[in-house]
Structure formats: structure tokens, C-alpha cells
Amino acid sequence: MSKPTLHIPAVPARPGEAPDFSYVHLAPAGAALRPDPRVPVRETVELADSLIRVLDEEGKARGAWDPKLEPSVLLAGLQNMVLTRVFDDRMQRTQRQGRITFYVRSYGEEAVSVAAAAALAETDMLFPSYRNQGLFLARGVSLVDLMCQLLSNTRDMCKGRQLPVMYHSAEKRVFSISGNLATQYPQAVGWAMAAAIKGESQLAAAWIGEGSTAAADFHHALTFAKVYKAPVILNVVNNQWAISTFQGYAGGEQRSFAARGPGVGIAGLRVDGNDFLAVYAATQWAAERARSGEGATLIELVTYRAGAHSTSDDPSRYRPREEFGEWPLGDPVQRLKQHLIQIGTWSEAQHEALLATVEEQVATAWKQAMAFGTLNEGEKLDPKLMFSDVYKEMPAHLQLQCAQMESGI
Amino acid sequence: MSKPTLHIPAVPARPGEAPDFSYVHLAPAGAALRPDPRVPVRETVELADSLIRVLDEEGKARGAWDPKLEPSVLLAGLQNMVLTRVFDDRMQRTQRQGRITFYVRSYGEEAVSVAAAAALAETDMLFPSYRNQGLFLARGVSLVDLMCQLLSNTRDMCKGRQLPVMYHSAEKRVFSISGNLATQYPQAVGWAMAAAIKGESQLAAAWIGEGSTAAADFHHALTFAKVYKAPVILNVVNNQWAISTFQGYAGGEQRSFAARGPGVGIAGLRVDGNDFLAVYAATQWAAERARSGEGATLIELVTYRAGAHSTSDDPSRYRPREEFGEWPLGDPVQRLKQHLIQIGTWSEAQHEALLATVEEQVATAWKQAMAFGTLNEGEKLDPKLMFSDVYKEMPAHLQLQCAQMESGI
Amino acid sequence: MSVTSTMNMVQALNSAMDVMLERHASVVVLGEDVGYFGGVFRVTDGLQKKYGAHRVLDTPIAEGGIIGAAIGMGVNGLRPVAEIQFADYIYPAYDQIVSELARLRYRSAAAFTAPLTIRTPCGGGIRGGQTHSQSPEGVFAHVSGIKTVMPSNPYDAKGLLIAAIEDDDPVIFFEPKRLYNGPFDGDPDKPAQSWLGHPMAEVPQGYYRVEIGKASVAREGSAVTMVSYGTMVHVCIAAAEAEGVDAEVIDVRSMMPLDMDTIAQSVEKTGRCLIAHEATRFAGFGAELSASIQERCFWSLEAPIERVAGWDTPYPHAFEWQYFPGKQRVQRGLRQLLNIEG
Amino acid sequence: MSVTSTMNMVQALNSAMDVMLERHASVVVLGEDVGYFGGVFRVTDGLQKKYGAHRVLDTPIAEGGIIGAAIGMGVNGLRPVAEIQFADYIYPAYDQIVSELARLRYRSAAAFTAPLTIRTPCGGGIRGGQTHSQSPEGVFAHVSGIKTVMPSNPYDAKGLLIAAIEDDDPVIFFEPKRLYNGPFDGDPDKPAQSWLGHPMAEVPQGYYRVEIGKASVAREGSAVTMVSYGTMVHVCIAAAEAEGVDAEVIDVRSMMPLDMDTIAQSVEKTGRCLIAHEATRFAGFGAELSASIQERCFWSLEAPIERVAGWDTPYPHAFEWQYFPGKQRVQRGLRQLLNIEG
Ligand SMILES: Cc1ncc(C[n+]2csc(CCOP(=O)(O)OP(=O)(O)O)c2C)c(N)n1
Ligand SMILES: Cc1ncc(C[n+]2csc(CCOP(=O)(O)OP(=O)(O)O)c2C)c(N)n1
Ligand SMILES: [Mg+2]
Ligand SMILES: [Mg+2]
Question: I need a labelling partner for C218 at 20 to 30 A (CA). Which of A157, B220, C16, D147 fits?
């Protein structure tokens, strides 16, 4: 009998090796069945292991999961994805120039956030990770507000307390991003439980990366969502990498992340995360399920982290440079663009024009944001802000420390 | 569309109501298929949702899961289960008499521990919960040693530091029981990982209650076991209750606990936990799987907590008194006894004799244990023991505190 | 103030939740075994029957999940009162408490907040062994953004719990379980006392608050100041009386915010200070008390500040009474402080 | 002692693990991104390539799982060195550390033990914001059964890490990340210094130990004692020099066990004491230092013991340098202590 040896998850390709995505099994677009959103959990076991896709290679929408969206909705989606990408590229450059201390792009994953935001109601509460800027942009949070946070300047929504990208928007119902992975997951479930307790019909939706599914809070969220049938959508963004760690180290070998849903008794869907229509349709299905009282859905969004983990990271140390070019699910922006051209509501020329406008829009916003100062230049936030909001009222010992700071102690 | 309301898990019957086990779906004995222990995880999905049973109503062994054991093995199993029950009853009485401060019985769940211990190799490492005393007894830890721990007396293996029932046995390879639920689960996985790293063929096996599957460490254990294919057997003892909390509050509605295994990518088996042969066979299957390098198995053992949670608990406050009588899976001792009589190696008379011998054996051991003192009477442990084993060598501040204690400060 | 009745601490805490569930639809209670069963210490007894399973929730056994979910409920407008069955089991929730609950208001510049109360029984004296006896207040008091409270009697327990539930900041509410059914002066051999007849067991049936952040003077005196909280307040009083020392005993009640004015006033008056708590001594909360007191009262101190605390070991089952910082140990501390021989 | 070479703290720590992986087949290294990648701070760089994926393991992102599994490995005869990527992320493992790792030897009367070393970068000064800058040593020092260590230079870092790996008790090993690449005196405007030329950067290439539980005198002096550890040791020295004070600077190095003899000797000599750490002040480890010093040296103290620490707020991104207890703040503390005006 072969002795057990420690299994080391396989990593398809390391620097210098050729990219290898043979582990990604593609179902053809339109192949997946679409059951009624109220089906028993067991009937989603199949879906949790397959891959829901709508857009085919020519950009045609196929099958039961085609949400049949108005061109205007598709166009808005394309615009928001383009906006997200242009914003990311520009902010990354400003980081390189030393204007901001840190940045995280969502390059290659824009559909995950933008399509979900489009499919949900404005009153639904969103619990993002640090790679869901698309949610803020799709919900219409102003570029200047986001940039001021990145700059920790006088208009910073976080009053200088948070690392760049840790946004929030109470007005647009997007929760405060935490630097601690997965903590928002059970919070989203609790938020949804409260909605159910109050008899309100809003949902909560949360996002984490596939690497973060190993965290305790992933389990807490699934358990509580299952037990109380909480009206929540739990999204796992499987972009294949967690900094340098391949998804196999989170348990992605053989078994999908979506399968953990049916495993504990909530619905599970596995979706082409670079297919705007598929993400929209899956979110819509899960929302309908939750609103009809059938509880939570775990949605795995299969995508690829096309860029570095963050501006502190250098992926060429642990994976082949050219991987994204080979990624079988392509580029979400290109694929939706292709679809729009395919159905005749879009053209290369219009796309060029859109890019130009958005570049302009972002550049203008940046100028406005810079006018409110940066971390190191211009007008600055009052350091006394360091002591407020620790508690609702400032306790005596903080008043004293604040005074000491002012007097230079 | 019906608004979502908070789902409250159903509890079949509360005090005053008639017991209702209609939620327990019984597969007939022998019905379950027995795949090769090396099958891919997916092929255990069915088994994780059904119920592996060997002993039928007449006590006949049926089907592919019959481990075909020597009568001697069965007899030893019966003896150990009877010993466990008699020991439990006696210790519970001593608690009522105020001899020991606390006790936890495993009444009705004896097969879960005893059959598993019988199916594993003596060199395999066991990580029990506080309700697995059967493991210690089946491994041959002496009654007197266990009783001295319960008495916190001069021979207490824990040197007076632990609550009663928090045993351990390095010699017999049973790990130290923790008062904190589920913590032993990832530890067992780490132990198994170490065995694999060292190229040794011992397995680890761990037990927790179904209520404890909600704990973070359950998830940690499954994730690490999956990722590294650790040679470990993860047992969930589903005795329907977690103190006053019905198993539905741990997520037991609709979906089995065993199903969480395949959900994350490890094999899952759901077993009649009151069927000695079924528990033995499932453990044997999982051990063979692990030793052949195929990794972990999650085994759900369906049983019923026939007694109170502990001597601090009064179950009549939250469930009907007569539930155990109605429990569809019966009494593990009775069922193995019936089987032994059925195959002609046992008789009522012999059973009576066995009971008498074991009662005698336990009574004698108790006298011996009491001779080493009790918490409040006779010879006592040296309180200086309070300060040792906090660290390997006693640091200065503890030497000082120890001296202060002695000088009565 | 409404009519009073005699309550033990369990009844007083139960009454506080009852009053608040009644007053505010936003108040919910959740935890392990708190619903149908009413809690392993019966503190939530009857509340689910009265307010329903949607407002008094039994939860899965996952402290981290309980607090994580409760934070989300708080963000969505509820005022959750979460019970952690024993303080020894709060650590799985430590990350949600420290990284999330304590930080949310700050990091979001008050755009999001979670007004949570976390109730948990602490302390020894019931033969619970090392996993049912701990006093972890110190590892919470150090965390900016949460308040930590520990009452020593039924009246304070109810008033402080109501104040905690109404507080818009998160509060960790420690309940010295040895005081649930009666005051305890640290002598295990005496028959257990009940709260009956104790002045602080006369508790208004209705709504009232005891302000969080104010210490109380449990006993007036001028020879020495004894600073303590929870069970040890009673031990200090007993020790002072046994020793015949005119001690002023201060019940801190709230560790964060800490009422240094009341403490300093007393120490400046007496010139001597003994600090007593049940938690382990090293880097425990007594260290902060000692450091702050010597910073503020250095010039009035006539002797070193004395700490009497649990030994720096786990809480051992068999040696509970050698471990517990009982009357004798506090008396020795007093003698030390007053440099009385013997 | 073997030949030395100049190392920064990252190289020194890497060398410590290299030496121990080489010497003992039982030593394994595990953590998030520590394997193929070599760690986000490169501290485990090259170790997996040299010792294989079975001894230098990349793990899932679950700090509680990492420590839980590492405990099991320790019980099965290995000596795991676990990395927690940032000290800010150690809280999900708090239960396994406090309830299990710290208690196992005690509760099993030494039948089972887990000789674990937990490495984790702590402290600010790199614009990491509130979730990449914390110094949580205080909430570990309070826990009986574990040792807590923090080096301030490459030589100590390697020697202490080797001692920690060989220690049969669990050790939490805090690495002040701001010191990885060079000493730091607290002045962010100066160009970053490297370890080059620093005496403590001359590190033996081979095996050596620095005993855990012994403080070191980083600077001798007679006017005042400055007690500190980690990054703040360098800030204290700089402040003393800037202020022209003949200060004795003591590098605690190990919080638990704490070398009170070395500290007390110095305070009895100088009569004045300033304690400095980066962690938040309230109920931080400085409180224990202050309380213990005051207990032992009360009669030789000529002024109140002074604490200089991080403010009691989260570590704010934009106000990092107003938050960090830098040279100016330490200098003011010195003046206060020596009652110098201005
Ligand atoms: C509790 C915790 N542990 C570790 C980290 C450090 N960390 C930040 S991002 C990251 C990887 C997360 O990967 P994944 O969840 O897949 O999300 P992705 O970055 O791919 O979007 C890690 C380990 C953290 N922020 N929080
Ligand atoms: C972390 C933790 N939380 C809570 C408790 C209190 N507690 C002790 S046993 C128990 C119920 C456990 O139920 P289950 O896991 O089903 O095991 P069973 O008692 O049924 O064998 C609880 C909540 C604990 N010991 N540890
Ligand atoms: Mg990822
Ligand atoms: Mg149970």
C-alpha cells in the first residue's frame, strides 16, 4: 500500500514555463440549464460544478441564462467596465508617480462587479472586497470622492484613517472595505438577517476572493446564511491567484468553490466571470431566489487577476508574464464590446470615442481631486481627526492625548 | 413575491409534545453501495446523503458494508460498549454524591467511539471530544487512571489542572481533550500532515459534535485536509443536540453534515452511528483511503444523545423526556448484543454475567481510585503543581508567586 | 424611579434585556442556547417566549459568526445583545471584535457603526476549571474603539446593561458569574450567600441607567484605597473589615472609559493603593491601573502600589482556592501596604 | 563563533531559519506566500527551493488553520515555524494560541507539547495604515504559557529566532518591519538608513543563540533609564542624544519572560524611568513595565515613571507621523522626567 505523502497542490505554470490552463474546463455557452430560482438546493449541485456561460466565441448570447437585456443596459455596463479599467490604470500610474501610497487594480475582473451591480436593486446592500471598485463606480459614487480617499486629502471620506482603496458609501449602500480578509462575509449575512427580521425586502451581497474562502468567516457566513435562510448573495471571485498562491491552495483542485454552497445546503452557481451577461443572469437568479424567501446563493465567478495583486506586488516572480493572453475566458470588456457590435448597437469607432471620453473624465476628476491636496502636498487634513470617531464622543483620555499632540508632545 | 422572513429551524418536539423523528430518513440495512476506498471524491456524494447501515431489525448483518468481523472482535466491542455505559452511569452517580464536580456521559453513543477504536490501528492518533470516553476505554486506558482524573486526586494525570473528563493518554495515543470546542480538529489534520511529511503511515482521527461543525476550526480542518490530502479521518457525531440546541441550528436541515466533505472535496460518508458494524466498516474504509494516499474522509455518525448534555444540564427543559425510546436507530449496545445472539455467540445469560462482571470491575476500580484521595477528602495534590508545566522551566515570576503562595500570601 | 424588587444578578440582567426589548423594536438578543432554553445561566430566561424567536435567537456554535452577524445586524439598524456563553470562549470572536467592531466607526468616519453589546460570564469560583473561569478584560481594555464594563452587584448590572444597549459604541459586558446568585467575599468554606437583603439587590423594575465610565465608591475610608471590580470588590471589602483597616474601596465598574478622577481623588487622600483583580497579574488590567495611578498620584504615594491578582497560570480545577486571590491574599497585601508585620 | 557577514534583519531571520532547517529535519516553515514566493517581505526567500515544498509550505489563507495545524505538527514531533503575514492578521488565530498552544503543556501535565514559533511582522512606519501597522504584543504577554519576543537588530533577530525555534515552549516572535532594512530613529524626513556599518548588523553566518528572557543594555548612562523594545529602542537612543541626556537605554528583547533584574538595576541607579513602545498606550505592555518597576524600585524613584506610546487610536494612514511616538515625543518625555522646562 502506497504510504501517504503530503500532497502539494499543483501550480500549472511558473515563471519561464508556458502558461497552462488545461485545468479550466469550459462548458460551451448556452449549455447550462436554468432551473427555477426556487428549486431545492440539491438541484443546484450540477450547476455548482459546471460553468454558466452566455456569450459564445462570436459574441452571440446563447441559452436559457441569456438575461435578454436592453441595449441601454448593456451599454451602461460596457461604460462602467471601461470606466473601471481606465480609472484603475490612471490610479496605478499616480501611485507609480508617488502621489498615492498604494493601489489595487481589478484589471480583467471588471464584469464581476459591474454586472452584479447592474442586476441588483439600488437599495440592496453591497459588502465589497478591496478589488470591487466596479461596485462603487457602477453605483455612481463620484470619481473625485474615490480619488480623494486614495489621496488621503482634505476631502477624504475616511478622514485620512484608511489605506487607499478602503472606500465606503453609505449613500450608495456600499459597505466600508476592510483590510482584513473575509470579515465582511458574515457581516453581510447578519445585515440580511436583520432585513428579514424587520420584514424588509432588501438583500445583501458580498464578495471575497477564492483565497479568502479558507478564512473562518467564510464558514461563519455560509453556516448562518444556511441556518436562517438569509436573503444574501455570497460571491467568490475566483481569479486563480491569492497574491502568489494559486487557487489550489484554497482547495480549488477537483472541486469548485461554488460546490461549497450545496455542501452546506445553500444554492451554488459557477459562472464565467468574464461574461457580463452570465454574471448578470446568475446574480438576477440569486436575487430572485433570496427575495422569494429561499435564502442564499453562493456564486463562484471564474475570472483571472490580469494584473499584479497590488502595487506592492510583482507577479513575474511567481507566474508567467503572458498568462492573461492565454486565459481561456478572455477579457470581459472585449467580450461585451464584441457582443454589442455583434447585435449592431456598437462600433469600434464608438468604442474609441468612449475610451477618449472616459480618459478625459478621469483626468478631469483627478485634477479636481488634487485640488483638495495630497498626502504630502497642499492643504492637509487636521491631525486632530486622528482622535475622533474612535468613540462617538471623545473620552477624557483621548481629549488629553489630542491636546498633547497639538502642543507637540 | 413573498417577502423574505428569517427562517427559524424547526425543532421536532419540545417538552410536553410527542417525540417526532419523521425527519430521520432510514435507508434499509445493506442498501448502500460500497465503492473502492480510492474512488474520486465525487463518487461519495451519494453516500454522504444516504445512511450506511449493516445491522437490520433482526440483528442480521447485511450488504457490502458488512465488515465480516470475527466473533471475538464483536465480543470485545460489546464488552467495551458495556464498560463505557457502566462506567458512565457509575461516574454520574458519584457526581450526584458530590464526589466529583462534573461529568459527561456518552449514553446511547457508545458505538461511535468503541467501533472506531476497534477499526483503527493502535498507532493511529486519536483526537477526541469530551464525549469520546469510549476511545480511552477501548484503547485500554485503566479505569483507575480515568477515575483519578475525575477526582483530581493525587494520581490525577492532569495534576489537578483540568475539569473532570478532560483526559489524555500519550501512551495509548489519545490526545488531550480541550474544553474549547472543535480546536482538536485542525490539530488532528496538522498531526496527519506531519505524519505524511515524515513519511510515516499512521493516521489521525478526530471527533466533534454536530453542533461544533459551526466552529471556525471545522472549516480550517476541512480546508487543510483537502489541500494537502492529509491522512486523517474527521468524524462528526450527530447526536441531534448541542446542549439545548437542535442540530438544525448547526445547518442540519435538508443537508447532511457528511455532505460538507464532498462540498470541499474530501470523501463523505453518512453512517448509522448506533450500528457497531456500520461504524467499524466506515472507519475501516476511511482508514484504507487515507493510508493509500487518497486523503481525508468526513464521517457523519448519526446517533442520539440519550442523556443530559452534562451533569450541569436538564434536558427536560427543552425536549420530551421519552425521546430516546422512540429513536429510530435504537440502542447501540442492544443492537450488537442482538446480533451476537443472532449469530449464536452470545446469550441473555452471558450478557447478564457480563454486566455483573463489569459492574464489579468498575466498583473495584472506584475503590482503588478513591484511595488516592478526592478533591475534598484524603490525601491532596501539592498546590505547587499549579505553577509547573506553564512553561518547561518555571520562570522567575512564577517561582516568586509559587513561594508567595506557600508562605500564604 | 419605578417600584423596586429584590433581584439577584441573573434577574437584574434579565430585567434589563426585558425592558430594552420592550422599549425598542430594534433590540435583539442572540447567542448559544439563549432562546428556547433561556441560557445556561438562565439570564435570558423567558425572553424568547415573550418577544419571539425572531428577536431572541438561538445561534450556531460559532462565536466569530455570532459577532460577525451581529455587526451586520447593527449596521442594518438593530441593537444586538450577543451572549458569549463563557468569556473563555470569546477568543474565536476576537478578530471580529478587534479588527471590525472596534474599528468600523473610525475607518468609515462614522458612515457605518454597529451598536453592539456583548455579554459574557467571566471569573472563577464555581469549579469551572481553566475553560470556565477566565477574566480576559485586559485583552479588550487595550483595544481602542470598544468599551469594557464589569458590574459587581444587581443594581449596577441592570443599569449598566441598559446603558450598554443604548450606547452607540460597542460594549463588552463582563458578568462575574460567581456573583450571579449572591455576593462572594472569597471564602469558599462559608455557606453561599444570596443577594437577599443586600442594598444593591433592591432593583427598580423599570428603566434606569448607570452611566458607563463612572467608578463608584463601594466603601468609604481614609487609610488606603482599594481599586477593584467585579467579584473582587466584595473580597476587598471583606479583607478591609477582617483586617480592621479604614479602607476606601473603589468599584471601577468600567475599565474603558476609566474614571481616573474618582480613583486619583481617593489615592491622593489616602496615599496608599492596592489594586485587586481575579485575572492573571502579568500585563493584566491592574498594570494599567497601577501605571496611571502612579503617573497621577506619584507625589502623594507613601508606599508602592500593591497588586493582588490571579497567579500567572491557567485557572486550575483542583487548586481553585489557592489560585483565587481571596481574602487572605488581599489582607496580606493590605499589611504590606501599611507595612504591618506578620 | 563562525565567520560573520553584514546582514539586514530580513537576511538575518532568513539565515536563522536556513541554519535550523539544515540542522534539524524536524523544523518546518509554513505560512501564506512563504514558499515559492519567499514571503511578502522576502524573509523566507529561497528556503523552499533549498529544503523542498514538504518542509517550507505555502498555506491556505486561514491564520487559525495555520496555527491549529502547526500545533498538531508540533505534537507529532515537528518544530514548526509559522509566519503570520502581518501581526494585524494574527487575531483569527488568537483562540488556537490562547486556548490551545499556551495551555497544552499545562492541561496535559506535559504529556503533550507543541514547540511552535510564530513569526509576525509588527509596527508601523511604512504607511501601511491601520491594518498593516499594529503592535499587539500586549495581548499576548498577558497570556500564561507563551513567550513573547521582539528583536531590535539583525544580530539579536537571528540569535533570538534560533533560540525560539529550539525552545520547547511556544514563542510569539514579533519582527518590527520598519527595521527590516535599516535602523530607524523615528525621523521620517531623513533618507532611510541601511544596516550597513551598524555593529549589530555583523551577523555570524552559522548557528548561535541569544537567550530568550535577557534584556540588553543598548546604551549605557546614569541620568535616566529608558526601557523599550523593537523600533523604539533606536528612537530612544536618538532622543537621548538629541536631548543630550546621559540615558541608559534598555532593550527588553523579551516581554515574557521579562528580565526585571536588568531593568531594576538600571532604574535603581538612575532613579528615573521612561518607557517607550509603539503599541497603543492604554493597558499596553508599558503598563506592566511601569507597574513592575514601581513595585520594585519605588523607593529609588525621583520622579513618576513616564510612558511614551502610540495614541489610543487605530494607526491612521495619513497621520502616521503624528501617531508614531517619534523623537520629539520621547524628548518631551525625557524633559518631563528630568523636569526641564520647555
Ligand atoms: C486575515 C488576513 N490575512 C492575510 C491578509 C494578507 N492578504 C491580503 S490580500 C491576500 C490575498 C487574497 O487573495 P484572494 O482572496 O484570492 O483575493 P484577490 O486578491 O485574488 O482578489 C492576503 C493573503 C489579510 N489582508 N487579511
Ligand atoms: C468555543 C466554545 N463555545 C461554546 C462552548 C460551550 N459548549 C460546551 S458543549 C456545547 C455544545 C456542543 O454540542 P455538540 O458539538 O453537538 O457536541 P455534543 O455535546 O452533542 O457531544 C457548548 C455550546 C465551548 N465549550 N466552546
Ligand atoms: Mg484571488
Ligand atoms: Mg451534538
Answer: C16
CA–CA distances in Å: residue D95 to residues C89, C93, D131: 8, 8, 20
- Rounded distance from Cα D78 to ligand 2 centre (Å): 30
**What is the Cα D328 distance to its own chain's centre?**
23
With residues binned 3-state (H G I as helix, E B as strand, rest as coil), the percentages for chain A, rounded to 5, are 45, 10, 50
C-alpha dist (Å) from residue A304 to A238, B207, B332, D158:
7, 38, 52, 39
Name the grid cell of D222: 546614569
Looking at the predicted complex, does its ipTM rise above 0.95? yes
Partner residue opposite D33 with nearest CB, options A6, A162, A244: A244
What local confidence, expressed as pLDDT, does residue C62 receive? 98
Q: Whose CA is nearest to atom 13 of ligand 2?
A: B242
Distance of CA D131 to the CA centre of its chain: 18
Q: Which residues form the pocket of ligand 2, taking CB atoms under 6 Å from any ligand atom?
A: B 131, 179-181, 208-212, 237, 239, 241-243, 305, 309; C 32, 61, 85, 89, 92
- Taking only the tens place, the pLDDT of each residue in D294-331 is 999 999 999 999 999 999 999 999 999 999 999 999 99
Cα–Cα distance between D244 and A38 in angstroms, integer? 76
Helix (H) or strand (E) holding D57: strand D56-58
Q: Is the peptide bond before C257 cis (omega within 30 degrees of 0)?
A: yes
* Cβ-defined contact of C89 to B152 (cutoff 8 Å): no
Short-list C286, C310, C227, CA closest to D291: C286
Of C36, C281, C332, the CB nearest to B409: C332
Q: Which three cell numbers stand for residue C67?
A: 459577532
pTM above 0.95, yes or no: yes
CA distance B120 to B205: 9
**CA atoms in the 13 A half-sphere facing the CB of B215:** 28
pLDDT at A409: 59
- The alpha carbon of C298 and the centre of ligand 4 are apart by a number of angstroms equal to 56
Q: Report d(CA D281, CA B211) in Å as an integer.
A: 40
- Would residue D317 show up in a list of annotated catalytic residues for this protein? no
Q: How confident is the model at residue D252 (pLDDT cuts 50, 70, 90)?
A: very high
**pLDDT for residue A90 is more than 80:** yes
| Residue located via cell numbers 491522512 | B231
Distance CA A340, CA A205 (A): 28
How distant is the Cα of B198 from the closest Cα of chain D, in angstroms?
A: 9
Distance of CA D87 to the CA centre of its chain: 11
